[in-house]
Write a structure and sequence with these properties.
Helix content: 10-25%
InterPro entries: DUF4288
Strand order of the largest sheet: 2-1-4-3
Number of helices: 1
Structural class: mainly beta
Radius of gyration: 19 Å
Strand content: 35-45%
Number of strands: 4
Length: about 120
């Protein structure tokens, strides 16, 4: 099978990061892009990618840290990647009342951008 037979997929995965002594725990979500010929192969590839991120290491304080794949949350066929294609969206919690008046002016140009990795 050639690369020409494959399309792009995105997979969001939840990881657990925690110390052996139980004093620290955090979930993290990562999104990965990869190519596969179909959903069945993409599912296996997503699990392979996630498992490849698992590790145990000693941090600067001398505590053992474990990063473990908890689950693959989403697996989406993107098809061909085009400029500006959305690969991740998080709707956030629903609220009963908007925290902003209808006429609120947002200022996205003042955003503090930071690398996610």
């Amino acid at each position: 099978m050639s690369r020409d037979d494959e399309v792009w997929f995105s997979a969001s995965m939840k990881f657990a990061l925690y110390t052996q002594d139980g004093k620290f725990f955090q979930h993290s979500v990562s999104v990965y892009l990869f190519r596969a010929p179909d959903h069945d192969v993409a599912r296996l590839r997503a699990l392979q990618i996630g498992a490849g991120q698992e590790q145990i290491y000693l941090n600067a304080e001398g505590s053992l840290i474990r990063i473990a794949l908890v689950q693959v949350d989403t697996l989406d066929m993107i098809g061909e990647i085009e400029d500006g294609v959305e690969v991740y969206s998080w709707p956030g919690p629903e609220e009963n009342q908007s925290p902003f008046p209808w006429s609120h002016k947002f200022n996205p140009g003042e955003s503090d951008f930071y690398p996610s990795v």
